[in-house]
Write a structure and sequence with these properties.
The chain is of the alpha+beta class. The chain has one domain. The protein contains 6 helices and 13 strands. 39% of the residues are buried.
Amino acid sequence: MPNSPTEPKDSQQRRAAKPIICYEVDSLPPYDDAFYEKAKHGMTKVAEVIAPARDAATFKVPAGHFFRIVSVDGPQVGDLNLWNENDLSEKFFSGKTRQLHASHVTKGDRLWSNLPNLRPMATITEDTLSWYGWDDDGAGVHDVIGTRCDPYTNYLLKEVDYNNCCHSNLTRALANEKSISSDQAEPHVHDVLNVFMCTGFTKDTYQYFMKASPVRPGDFIEFFAEIDLLGALSACPGGDCGGEHSSDVTQCYPLLIEIYKPAEGSLEGWSPQERNRYGGKHISSL
């Protein structure tokens, strides 16, 4: 066994290095609350979809429409995937969303798409759980740090096949929506926005943890579609994630997705977001 590294004499000086925010985001367009509130005034519901307990459903949102994920029958966490409806290769990029905003997102934050597109797919325009903030455990709501429960990790840890994990749910839902096989659909399933999930990192071992979600029936998170969206939402088999993570025992509930159309003329001057305009072709300037 190799010897443990010897702590250098200047260890405290090294640890005292000043933290620097990785991305200065002041140049991003500010959240225009007045615009979105005007667009919501007089909007009408045009569709709704139920994601059944322990399963997933797909939904479509035209650019310039709003959608809500709503708690209906009981406290329930959802795993959200988003794609460009017209191009499945463009999908939600949780890692870059985390870097541009925070580990947990709320009203005013945007959900960004993967490279090379890197544009807002959706903007969060309302969050009835924004009151929660950060609790004494360092937990918040709506995280972009977790991935999604999946059958591979479940088997790794328990040596049991479990096919209602969120990854499997999302795979089946996308396969059904696109009339493709699960093998074809699975590569498009990606890291999620953990809707309503209450999470953080432990203060001693720095492990990702979950705790019972504060969501209650009537709570919702609302988004504005900045491009044409295809979404898939899994009602997690962990229920409110206050106990077991993937289970047929935990109490689970469905989630409701509502689609709203703004009133005519309320989006004057708005247009769908363009793809990222980087044109350097990765050519080295050294």
